[in-house]
Design goal:
The chain is α/β, with parallel strands linked by helices and 337 residues long. It is built from eleven helices and eleven strands. The chain folds into two domains: 11-134 and 301-330, Aspartate/ornithine carbamoyltransferase (Rossmann fold, 3-Layer(aba) Sandwich), CATH 3.40.50.1370; 136-298, Rossmann fold (3-Layer(aba) Sandwich). Bound molecules: N-carbamoyl-L-aspartate.
Length: 337
């Protein structure tokens, strides 16, 4: 695809070669993310960061990625502080904000809302999550992480065996990741969820027609026995009609070090899009896994910076100018000690 000026809304818009292009640009962003070098290539550019739903890492990661390329960030968080509470349509907000920004990132609780917004925007829009629908940049950083984790063991994404665990019905990260995996070969997917929270049938169908082997289970321990990646997710409480309804499913699939040691192959990589729900009634990824070197959750968040920098560089067409506008950093860098 031609990335210049493109909206990034859904995994459906990518071919495998596009994903590989994003990953190779992400690799080139590492010296900047590690603060070995600084680039000012996006000096003067403005990112409009519009988050109408709770977010810590996606919002700050988009903002930091833009800053690391030398651009500035303007932010709105929450409906209450935006004109949407005054009845303004998303399209009008888009018409206005695209006059102020060079690119816009947006999260919104309604499925399809970011695409509606993008249809009226004069600048590229990136989907930071639209309801239960999609979270394409998270899926890209997840797959990039999978590639790096497996690559360190001499493996490729083709042939991957992955378990996806938790609220697969509402989890937009697993929706986007499943669609992304459909671009790869010989993928084995184990879907572990309560029956009521199963992955939507159309996404299962898409993976199967792409040649993936999909197995479904509502039991954790025996289903994580033969996988390379155990990808845990949070019960998406905000998508249920009441907290009590979500409570029924909370804490059903808890992974801790004892279960890992007993049931997983050695070196199974543990992933989670985060936030992990660490309250005692949920505790889907126990803190006793924190010393397990195969816990990749904070490598995922670090990789998110690389992927989002790559997307900005591609969409604003500066990939080959990043190094030209760069120099070494001067300050103390604790990452390199
Ligand atoms: C996810 C999301 O918002 O969909 N978080 C994230 O962006 N990393 C997952 C979640 O909230 O459970």
């Amino acid at each position: 695809m031609n990335f210049t000026g493109a909206h990034i809304l859904s995994i459906g818009q990518f071919q495998r070669q596009d994903v590989e292009q994003i990953f190779s640009v992400a690799d080139r962003m590492e010296p900047y993310a590690l603060r070995k070098r600084v680039t000012r290539v996006l000096e003067g550019a403005i990112l409009g960061n519009m988050f109408f739903e709770a977010s810590t890492r996606t919002r700050v990661s988009f903002g930091s990625a833009f800053n690391l390329l030398g651009g500035e960030v303007r932010e709105t968080a929450g409906f209450e502080s935006s004109a949407l509470v005054k009845g303004e349509s998303l399209q009008d907000t888009a018409r206005v904000l695209s006059g102020f920004s060079d690119v816009i990132c947006m999260r919104h609780p309604q499925e399809g809302s970011v695409a509606d917004f993008a249809s009226a925007s004069r600048v590229p829009v990136m989907n930071g999550g639209d309801g239960s629908n999609e979270h394409p940049t998270q899926a890209l950083l997840d797959l990039y992480t999978i590639g790096r984790e497996l690559g360190a063991k001499g493996r490729t994404i083709d042939g991957l065996r992955i378990a996806m665990i938790g609220d697969l019905r509402h989890g937009r990260t697993v929706h986007s990741l499943s669609k992304l995996l459909s671009l790869y070969n010989n993928i084995q997917v184990m879907l572990i969820s309560p029956k009521e929270l199963a992955l939507p049938e159309n996404i299962i169908e898409q993976m199967r027609s792409a040649g993936a082997t999909v197995t479904i289970s509502d039991e954790l321990n025996n289903s994580i026995a033969n996988v390379d990646i155990a990808y845990s997710t949070r019960i998406q409480e905000e998508r249920f009609t009441s907290k009590a309804e979500a409570d029924v499913y909370r804490g059903k699939f808890r992974l801790n070090q004892a279960i890992y040691t007993q049931h997983c192959e050695p070196n199974t990589v543990i992933m989670h899009p985060l936030p992990r729900d660490s309250r005692s009634d949920a505790n889907e990824l126990d803190c006793d896994l924190d010393d397990n070197p195969n816990l990749a959750i904070f490598r995922q968040t670090d990789n998110g910076l690389l992927i989002r920098m790559a997307l900005f560089a591609l969409v604003l067409d500066v990939v080959d100018k990043v190094d030209e506008f760069s120099h070494e950093v001067q300050w103390y860098n604790s990452r390199q000690q």
